[in-house]
Amino acid sequence: MKYYVGIDLGTTNSAISVFDGEEVRIYKSKGQSDVTPSNIYIDKKGKRFYGHKAYEALKGANSERVAKKFKRYMGTSTDIEFAGMTMTPVECSAEILRELMRCLPEDIAQSDDKATVITVPAAFDQRQNAATEEAAKLANIGKVALMQEPVAAIMRVVKNTQKNGSFIIFDMGGGTLDVAIATYFNGKVDVIAHGGIAMCGGADIDRLIVNEIVIPWIKENYDVPSNFRGIEKYEKGLKIALYRAEEAKIELSSSETASIYGSLSIADDSGDEIELDIPIERSEIDDLIVDLENEAIQATRDTIKKSGMSIDAFDRIVFIGGPCNYKPLRDRVCRELGLKAEGLEVNPMTAVSEGAAIFAESIDWTTKEHFRKSSHAEAKTSEDLGLNFKFEARTSADKAKVAVKLKANVSGYTFEIKSVDTGWASGSLELKNGNIVKVPVEKMGSNAFEVFVYDDANRIVKLESNNIVITRTAASVGAILASHSLGVEVSDSAFDDSTSLDFVVREGDKLPVKGQKIFKAKETIKAGTNQALIINVWQGDIITPPTENKFVGTMKIEGTDLEYGSIHAGDEFYFDYKIDEAGALNVDITFPKLDISFNSGKNFYTPEDGQEDMNSIDTIKRISADGDSLLDQIDEYGEKIRDERLSQVEELANKARNLIDTSVVDPEEVKKNSDNIDKAKKILNDIRKDNLSIMRRSEIESAQEYYDSEVAQFASAVEKQEFRNLFNLANNIIDRDDSQFEQVIESIRGKSMIILFKKSDEYVIGMFQYYRARPYLFNNQRIFKQLVDEGTQAIQSGEYEDLRRIIAKMFQIMNSSSGDDRASALANIMRG
Predict the structure, then answer these.
(1) What is the pLDDT of residues 335-355, one digit of tens each?
(2) What is residue 604's predicted lDDT score, i.e. its pLDDT?
(3) Could you give the CA distance from residue 155 to residue 497 in angstroms, rounded to a whole number?
(4) Considering only 245-259, 299-313, 526-540, 643-657, which range has the smallest mean pLDDT?
(5) How many angstroms separate the CA atoms of 109 and 98, rounded?
(6) Which end of the chain has fewer CB atoms < 10 Å from its terminal CB, N or C?
(7) For the chain, first and last CA: distance in Å?
(8) What pLDDT score was predicted for residue 609?
């Protein structure tokens, strides 16, 4: 490979660099800047502009014709509407990727001898990574691999300063925060831990300035409605205000004072043009971003805790990303963590792109999986002599070892190694198995050597190959760590109504990883039918119920996928998985009895089943309902235990619940609250683990009380005995250090639901009313409304068996990401 390209595809700014094996170069945008703003502008004639020209359009009357911050919606079904048209986040990202490639000289951009690494935040999930890969394919930029942004930053840091020690990468960009803990020793980098926040960056600071400073100032100085949010013309003006706020924020990076200044290109209700002229000081910004800083500092502390290292172990913190140009933010992070504040070690705007280009050189682009190049190689030198030379193919040291590998010793033979680049020669050495020569590796990149072999008469021996190439690198990176846990939703047996996660990777595991799981079908799937084997994958660490985690995707093996035969209940199948260094999951499903296989590229990520639209009121309703559910859990926890983290969960839950009361849909705020729900669930799970005995006893009591009051009256004698057995089992294993207790409790809940669903008309009516009020839980709204009408008619006519069939049909169109435990009934596989 001749050119190694690195792209930082950022929320607010993107950058592109090229590494030639020795030096890395940043290629400037058309505006002659190191970065390209991630904006698209379409003028009234339909002409498209990118980068700085598009960014400049944000400050005028054409701001609504600009697409921006679409990276925040990657992996969702949120449309980007601008200039009278609609694009997806993937399509917008592809446009920026093409624009970045246009920054390169034509010989590089058009070369087939290039490969590109695109960075993604460590906090990105499976869907977001998949969306980034889709954007790269759409942009048609050639060979592409993804890698985590903090790892790219580390590569740039160690190339710049090869200083042994441990350090923290604090990477706050326009949209996300990534934190990584790394050690560097004699050319080897190891990532010990990483963490971060998906929605924490410069864009959030801009929104704070508008919400807390600009809007109050407008209300005080102009004739506007008391609540003008949501009114079209004022929303248009606030888009310009957001641009002006960002300008002032950037100015405050190098000055104590600034002004939010400029026309909003709209008039107030009295006809006066609204012109901003708001003096602002650093101290105001400092006060405004305290909560954001606290969140970022806590994420850093959490990452340090994961590493198992004390703060004294770190000799520095490296700041990456545009917001880190703001010195007060850097100073506070250092002060709170107890680290010495230093100047910027690398260019925070371009370090990720440069590091990605450097990392691209370490990838073996001939492999489909884009594995990294081996640090050792072997030159097959002479088949007649059985002679090979094993050598260090990649090293960060100034010398490398070359070893003789000889199948049978020969007498009187010698060899010599010479440097093609410098003329250095090893001198004549005995050709003997195991002999080692240390050769000088003087320059970065490729260092070429030639091997010469002489027989016992000092005649040169003809060799099939006599070339050795050793690459000197700035550093080698050890294993990259998984940012998230991923698990498959399974039951323990055909008779178990509960499900739990069977993990394929845990957070902190070394990547890449591959393996095989053996599962069984719980149901029979006949060829040609609409029956389906449903394999759900979730992201998170909550073993049971899986629905408390973040939904990744479903792989459905349908009867229509089978050309012949059937998958019978109890049939085994192989789940072969690979997770690359970017954390992307690839799966092959094999049914040995039918001798057929399916790949996850076929039907794993189903857009209609899990992706949410952050502009949708249904998404807001779902988040608000999740907030209510969390508050109920907090009340239950609060009755049994005291834990200060409950107040943190309560704050997150209240913000989510109150989202429904906002007068205008702010997709960034919706996405932030959606992420906060996942965060709150994780915290609650941690609280439960730390108070396990107390919480388990409470859960048994609650389940027993519900059974006695609601279920027992409908249970048969056999069913009552099953419940007695389950409650006895739960009490007997309450102190076990595994998840079997939770699975038993889920089984009790599942059996309770089944009995009530079959035998209690009142319960079935209540279930129908519950779902009728929550349309956001369902994929197909047309079918949902039809089923609601049919269900209402069934209740009016007292046809409760029909109502049961209608609810069963509702389950079939329910989002797997709904977070409703009853959605788990859709998963129909079990452990092998």
Answers:
(1) 999 998 777 888 999 999 999
(2) 53
(3) 48
(4) 526-540
(5) 10
(6) C
(7) 44
(8) 56
Give the angle subtended at the CA of 475 by the CAs of 469 and 478, to the nearest 5°. Answer: 105
Tokens of 328: 């007060």
Helix segments in 691-739, DSSP class H:
692-706, 717-732
Residues present in the chain in total: 832
The 3-state DSSP class for residue 766 equals: helix
Structure tokens at 390: 């094993």
CA dist 166 and 820 (Å) reads 43
Q: What is the pLDDT of residues 779-821, one digit of tens each?
A: 788 999 999 999 999 999 999 999 999 998 998 788 765 555 4
Complete domains list, the chain, with CATH: 3-201+293-360 (3.30.420.40), 376-472 (2.60.40.10), 482-603 (2.60.34.10), 611-677 (no CATH), 691-778+780-813 (no CATH)
Residue at token pair 């089923």 = 787
Contacts of 544 (CB under 8 A, 6+ apart): 498, 499, 500, 501, 739, 742, 743, 746
Contact 660, 669 (CB under 8 A): no
Query: How confident is the model over 201-218, as pLDDT tens digits?
Result: 999 999 999 999 999 999
In whole angstroms, give the CA distance from residue 643 to residue 483: 27
354 vs 93, 444, 793, CA distance in Å?
19, 16, 64
Contact 804, 771 (CB under 8 A): no
Sheet holding 188-197, edge to edge: 314-320, 165-172, 177-185, 188-197, 476-477
pTM: 0.89
10 Å CB burial of residue 509 (0-12, 13-18, 19+) is middle
Residue 797, burial from CB neighbour count under 10 angstroms (0-12, 13-18, 19+)? exposed
Rounded to whole angstroms, how far apart are CA atoms 700 and 708? 12
Closest CA to 622 of 582, 671, 668: 671
Tens digits of per-residue pLDDT, 173-191? 999 999 999 998 888 889 9
